[in-house]
Amino acid sequence: MPDPARLGDLQLAILRALWSRGEATAAEVHADLHAERGLAPTTIATMLRRLASQGFASFRNEGRVFVYRAAIDEESVQRAAVRDLHERLFAGDAEALVHQLLDARELSASELEGLRALIDARAQSAEAESGARPRRTRRD
């Protein structure tokens, strides 16, 4: 399977339709995306076949119609995209990534509180892990 972080906008839009519906035909995905994107039904069908051939979707034959389902979950795609962004754009600097996230738009108090809770939980987990491992000492 290719890197999910490299999925294009249309591929992601199609996967979102599949995640939302659970499974769908090309016609159903087209109906979901037509108003927003104005694409031909054949374009959607082609993209679904490509997603399936790359391992991002699967399908079953129901009579004369293919019914598609996402073969990768949304969280895995998000995680891969953030990991790619972290490495490629921020050269592995997590603090810079979070700084830009915080500066990119106004966050509500509840969003900030949620982020603070996530960071606090991660810090406690890291402290517990480092405290549980015995420190190795060097013997001369």
Describe this structure in words.
It is a single chain. The chain has 140 residues and is mainly alpha-helical. It has two domains: 4-70, Orthogonal Bundle (Arc Repressor Mutant, subunit A), CATH 1.10.10.10; 92-131. 63% of the residues lie in helices and 10% in strands. The protein contains six helices and three strands, in the order H-E-H-H-E-E-H-H-H. It has helices at residues 9-21, 26-37, 41-53, 74-88, 94-104, 109-132, and strands spanning 24-25, 57-62, 65-70. The chain has a three-stranded antiparallel β-sheet. Strand 2 and strand 3 form a beta hairpin. Helix 2 crosses helix 3. It is elongated and about 60 Å long. The chain starts with 8 loop residues before the first helix and ends in an 8-residue tail after the last helix.
Number of domains: 2
Q: How widely separated are the two ends?
A: 49 Å
Dominant shape: elongated
The overall pLDDT average reads 92
* CATH class annotation of the largest domain: Mainly Alpha
- The arrangement of helices and strands along the chain is HEHHEEHHH
Q: Helical percent range? A: 55-70%
Supply the number of helical segments.
6
The strand order across the widest sheet is 1-3-2
The whole-angstrom Rg is 21 Å
